[in-house]
Fold these 2 entries.
Entry 1:
Amino acid sequence: MRQIETDVVVIGAGGAGMAAAIAASEAGKRSILIDRSLIGRGGATVMAQMTVAAAVGEQTEDHWTHHLKDTLAAGRGLCDERLARLLCEEGVTAIRKLQEWKVGWAAEDGHLKQVQAPGHDRPRCVYVDFLNTGPAVSKTLRTQVIRHDRIRRVGDLYALDIVLRDGAAVGVLCVHLHTGEPVLISAPATIIATGGLTRLYRRNSASLNMSGDGYAMALRAGASLIDMEFVQFFPIGHLAPRLIGMDPIMWDPFRYKLGGRLLNGNREEFTQNYGVADGGRYQITRDQATYAITKEVEAGRGSPAGGAYLSFEHVPEAELRKAFGPIIDKLAKNGIDLTKTAVEVAPIAHYHMGGVRVGVDMETEVPNLYCAGEAVGGANGANRLSGNAITEALAFGFVAGRNAAARAADTGPAGDIAADAAEGLALLQADGPTDAPNSAALVTALQALMQDYVGPFRTAEKLAHALAELRRMKAELGDTPYGSGGTYDSERLDWFDLRTMLVIAEAVTLSAQARTESRGAHQREDHPGLEAAWEVNQVIRLAEGTLSLERLPVIRETVLEAAS
């Protein structure tokens, strides 16, 4: 076993994690930035292609309170308004900071270019280019991380559990993926920045490390989760024809820049039948588009592969090439000519509004344990406003890093934590059963169950079936890790992934079952429409292996009234 000591340990090295490590370093504290994949190349930020919402007001007059108003409207009455305000207000500072670091925001006549995105009252979103914003942000953050001597980077390290002493976080228990060796990182402050849970679903746009790891670690440590029922499905994830080496959510930039007609299997526009006439200019929000496409498919008006057509056939080739030149050639290698062929798209799990419950300092209910980015719940309510994801990662990451550094300065070193981690170490090093089920097959079965029964549209019958199956699978998994714990033991790692995925899938399903209304990304076909009594947040806790659910009032602020 290896033990390392630092001031702040950051779990997850996507946009939020890197921002947190940088902020901690700028505050004068050492940090260790860990990830189960390559530093700065896993998670969601590096995969994001499009735009970042912030009220920089360079091409159109704006203020963060206008951004906040749109964020709260998208959240359908469930946003923790303190966190939503933090996202919008700190988001402007974060965009300026990235500008200073030469991220390359698109500019025109000396001003940052801003475009309109669904749900915004004005052009507000900045970008690098329409297919490279996330990679550019990640590269810029990686460059800054490398420049900070106080930041130590460790990849291929899988965080398993938060180590506690007298109820407070004192570090993290990890396993080194190459060797199977236990690694303890001792720190007076810990930040969870592991992203969301979209790997729970068969069709998802996430990297493989988005299994809800941070949520599960926080739960087991004694923190609570909030708004777990709200999983956002991206409506136009690529479905057909086969697309190799390209992102399944790549079509959003095309719609932003060129327009694109959503057509059913009869080649008819249809979103106007569900309350929003899209007109090819991307006015429909993600939850509305997901609903419209799903209902058309259910009515027998879907495209051949089971989705909807997205057509750019009305756009001249010269205009396509001017906007996306090299991408047009890559599409051609996949046999796609957008001037002659409509692609097929369908909803795909993309983002999670819920997460760990925190205060405005990003600290959880567990002392010394912080969260950042998509791991945080509450800011987005029932539906995330388009463009807020990278803003959230940066803003919450910088805030968490600053506050964790201050806590480390106040608390001092955590010291040797081996005795505190004894139970987790024993589990990690336990001998596996000789008759273990196929762990990879269990992961696939779990994803299929969530896709089919806890997807964008839910019923009491579907949710009850899913809950029963999840509990059966949990019993089948057992309490002892599979495999031997040796070098590259994928069987053992699958067991730990399943341990996480099952408890988080149950949290989503339990919350969805309890919320008997339709709001934002949570749609109950047996309970259509908003219910005033359900303008509350649901909070999940874990005690002795059992999840419990509680309703709490939404946290409000009066900042908008004061600003007006």
Note: The chain has a mean pLDDT of 91.
Entry 2:
Amino acid sequence: MNINYDLLQFFVYKKLIKRKDADEIAALCNKNNMPVEQYLLAKEICTEVEELSALAEYYCMPSIEIDMLDIDKNLFSKLTFEFMKKHKVIPVMIDRGGTLLVACARPLDSAAISALATQFVCPMDFVLVPPSQIDRYVDTIVASISTTSALDDLNAEQDDKLLKKNDPLQAETRKDEDVINNPAVRLVDSFIKEAIPYGASDIHIEPFEKVVKVRYRIDGDLQQRAEFPIESFSAISARIKIMAGMNIAERRVPQDGRINMIIGGNEYDFRVSSLPTVHGEKFVIRILDKSSFHFTRSDLGFTEEENVVVDKILAHPHGIVLLTGPTGCGKSTTLYSFLKEVNKPDVNIITVEDPVEYTMFGVNQTQVNTRANMTFAAALRSILRQDPDIIMIGEIRDEETAQIAVRAAITGHLVFSTLHTNDAPGAVTRLEDMGVPDYLVSDALIGVVAQRLVKRLCPACKKKGKTNPKEMEILGISEPITIARPQGCQFCNYTGYKGRIGVHEIMYVNEPVRETIARDKNIEHLREVSREQGLVTLWQSCRNYVVKGVTSIAELMTMNYDQ
């Protein structure tokens, strides 16, 4: 493959590549037969958004995110989904003048342009979009078609003979082709594959008296996807249990299982939990992408001011760093981003997790196994004999784990872990409640990051306007300012929000804070001293996002927290 050296030099000009690395990158692109823009993404040298901006300038083309486009799906009849994914093109719409607008990720793909010209005999305009967004959009459409087809087949499956054939106790004895073509099998597979491009974190399958509902958790909220007759649920239940390695004959007690699948070239780990209810077993499937982790601090919502404090915390050679917040607020993701930064060839990093959510090259990751008595505390005692420099503990759950973690921190190790507390100073009280003496906490603790996730306003439909008196009172201002409010459109599924962003409260343990921890038992005094030392509360951080138009007043009110 001939490398586009002009584009490579343009990336140098835009400071996406260092000049001294350009020749080496060109050689590696030639060796791997890979375009330079694809190589930069594969090696995480830059993000897709950064590269999109540079490519748009290089090709003198407009750029946009695909969710902002109003795509006419009737145009898909002239192209196959395989073609659109392979060549990274999507026909968007034909305007009143008869010009076809095409979303593309490879502007110089002559084969794709020729094929489009053959199918659509009309002038064409092109707009640049990220390639992963085209893949995600096509995957969403394909999965939705597959799910709808499987649902139609399942709803038509009413005769007694087929219902008997779908009995869970006979599920494992079916012929392979019967299993593959069975509507229940196809429906479960479709739900799982469809949830990925939708960006769902969990799939809920819930039986009720007459129907079974399927809901996806997207951006923190449950959204109903489908429902089907309760008569078909036994086959659905059996399929999930077989895939997850669970006991299909046991329906009286909760069970846990796991499914591993490769979807779109990425490896996913699905944690399955069943719970007996009045009308049958409810299933929740948690989705974890094990094969890739591309989050940076800026992606997670850390501001420039917060990054300065985090840099100070991560610069410490030993001590303990804690992430706090409720379940599902992204603590583990933030921990992984920290580990990614400190992961260097000259350090030994060992983690103890339950479970391992992302695999990281160069990091020794251990999984808790309670059945084998491999608890956090037992694993931690063992890995201390493995000469670690950095230790990550998935969660400090008990007194023994807390004691070992703190003592490891004061004996020369850098320890990362999570706790469940409402704010950053509360982590000190929680450790002391677990039996760790205050003098050890003050010696070991480097910093605490409290985190929440708030919804981003949809960029396509959010509406700006002046604050009213009630909003001014909430924000603590005397003069009206312009903020954004949710509206709802097709791009955000009429919710008014698209995606989430992290809100942080960072307590850096400097000398005044350290002395307060050691000498003063009053948590309110610790909060006061921390604020004097520059701590910005969760409420204040979220308020800043409201003022910037990133989120709404309604999301600010979820920060049930004293200013």
Note: The CA atoms of residues 351 and 392 lie 4 Å apart.
